[in-house]
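User: My advisor, Dr. K., asked me to get a structural model of this assembly before our group meeting. I'm new to this, so sorry if the format is off. These are the inputs:
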Amino acid sequence: MSIIIMHDCIKNKNIVLGVCGGIAAYKSVELLRLLKKYGANVRVIMTQSAREFVGQLTFEALSGQPVCTSIFEENDYVSIRHIDWAREADAVVIAPATANITGKLANGIADDMLSTFMLAVKSPVIFCPSMNANMYESKAVQRNLETLRADGYFIMEPGTGKLACGTAGPGRLPEPADIFDRILSSLMPKDLKGKRVLVTAGPTMELIDPVRFISNPSSGKMGYSIARAAEHRGGKVVLITGPVNLSDPLNVNMIYVRTAKEMASAVFKHMKRSDIIIKAAAVSDYRPVRSSKQKIKKKKDEIVLALQKNQDILKELGRKKGNRILAGFAAETENLEKNARKKLAEKNLDIIAGNIVGSPSSGFGTDTNKVTLFYRDGSKESLPKMEKDALAHILLDRIVEGMVSHLD
Ligand code: PMT
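Assistant: The format is fine. Below is the predicted structure of the whole assembly, which you can bring to the meeting.
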């Protein structure tokens, strides 16, 4: 069984970072730092104007390699650097990409190291335009970006807001973490291409009155990791999430809900258009029978809160399963195997990930999780403690393997 660990896919990969002359060039230093942190081998090419904004030495020190700035450099007689680097690159990222490089690449002009190198590149290219909003919106730049898109470049939308030149609008370089995310995505196998994946995440919130509610400590991390991983692997992902404090995964259709009822109606609305459903949300099993419209006053020493059962969304999905792959989680504090197997059977699932909650490194709120996967055929797989990002990929590996063997 193959195991893809999310950040491992970037380890020892050759990434070429092209830096052009824009005020956002300083952000590419942070991007380089992130790439190095996860073990990438980063080679940097700077245009002449990029060197006006950030020192070449900074990139050299952080990448641990000489920065390339010109086609005519000493020692290049031993190799043709722009051809070698292009051949060896697993991915190329240009950040920031100016109007100038956009125009050159859209028209096949090769008059400096970066543009010459780019003509020889065969690997995925992540192109991150950053410039004044009027320049970005100009017909020429838009036309050139369209050409690059048609040539297979992945063009990252610039952020919108106040720009260094004092104007406001689109043109900001995306955050380094988002660019890093797109580089990761470009390195992933696209084994979920064409698959529609529905994921749920986070807690639900059942209101007692306008200022009090029943909920649980789910942070949404597990479900968000699954949604991000599925998108990286080419899936068309819908993420239905309870209230959490996490950034939205890129390129995922987000649906925000609060209560179990809202989650149920969102899930049932999207289930028909899903090939794979993974329910990582911690849905409240009960809600107050009555939710007071006004804040309940503190009068009595004791009050009794009557609760009624929420619909079991996953069980209902199990009833309507059809050919879909259905995966759930079982959050347990004891008897993991017995309880997880019971839920697997009762909810008609293909896989259930059983996790013991309440431990400092597993379950709610943590970055890591330790689960045992229980399968429909009765087998099980105990996984070691690992990052939720990594676990998300293993779960998807198993789903993909299951789908393939199902077709055999
Ligand atoms: O969000 P994190 O902080 O990262 O924490 C991750 C997690 C602990 C929440 C996650 O790993 C997890 O275990 N999620 C499932 C939590 C849960 O509700 O478990 P359960 O055993 O009560 O429910 C079993 C399954 O039925 C779950 O897939 C759940 O989504 C589903 N369910 C439960 C009740 C209900 N009314 N409707 C449901 O669909």
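One thing worth pointing out at the meeting: Residues 225 and 389 are 5 Å apart (CA to CA).

User: Perfect, thanks a lot.
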